[in-house]
Amino acid sequence: MKRCLAALLALCTLLALCACGAAVPGTENGVFSLDILNTGKSDCIIVCMDGVTVVNDAADEDDFDAICAALDRRGVQRIDYLILSHYDKDHIGSAAALVRAYPVGQILGPDYEEESVYFTLLERAAEDRNTPFLRLTENYRIETENGSVVADPPDVDYGDDNNNSLVTTVTWRGTDFLLLGDAKKNRLNEFLVQASGSYELIKLPHHGDSSKPLLKLIEQTKPRYAAATVSPSEEIEDKLLTALAAAGTEVFRTDSGAVRVEWTGADFTVVQTK
Fold it and tell me: Of 274, 265, 176, 166, whose CA–CA distance to 224 is shortest?
């Protein structure tokens, strides 16, 4: 009997140690993932790097459960940074609910006037939860052990939500990922001046719309992958598809499933999940 009890105790101890030592996917140092969610014609990208969680945009108000499910799959219990590219409903719809549901270290967004219901709800949630809300007028850089996230605001207020988008660059071990919000012609022309090198993936702006500066950006940087946040009723413009094909870029549509990027330790894998 004593021998059985000793064996049972040893087994329980071993299980406890394993549980304590088990890494939660996406939350430990040296691990990188980037998920572009399937939320239809809206944006939410979850970046986990070196234990830091960055949520870029918060989709629409009816996407809250889908965002929470994606965070749960990554083992996320805290959002370190909530970056809002701009304040359109399909980018901040679930932002207030996220701030109330999770500890959020900081909210970052562009500095322009906004009076929508969703923006007011976000401001109230941030105030109630004592969450700092920074309206950026210059680059904001987040550093981790193996990477960085840089949120880049426009140089001027263009008087248009989309052209006022933050452009966010995620870097992991020297490889860049570009999140363009809903940036349109003016904002893209501004960003082109500083764009250099190449991108592993570009999250295309404004759900597959094309523009001359976007075509030039693709020709100039030749991304390996591109993703468009679209619903089944929307088409990526032909000019844009032609430019992406000429650059040798593999294109994903989120209405076919979320796009998941992971670091294997030697390279990146990009898969689409239902």
Answer: 176
- Contact status, residue 36 vs residue 229, Cβ threshold 8 Å: yes
User: Is the alpha carbon torsion for 95, 100, 105, 106 positive or negative?
Assistant: positive
CATH superfamily name and code, 24-273: Ribonuclease Z/Hydroxyacylglutathione hydrolase-like (3.60.15.10)
- The whole-angstrom separation of Cα 160 and Cα 170 is 25
- Residue 232: what are its φ and ψ, rounded to 5°? -60, -25
- Tell me: the pLDDT tens digits for 136-191? 999 999 999 999 999 999 999 999 999 999 999 999 999 999 999 999 999 999 99
Sign of CA dihedral 161, 206, 34, 77: positive
Give domain limits for the chain. Answer: 24-273
Statement: residue 27 has pLDDT above 70: no
Tell me: the pLDDT tens digits for 2-20?
A: 333 334 334 343 333 333 3
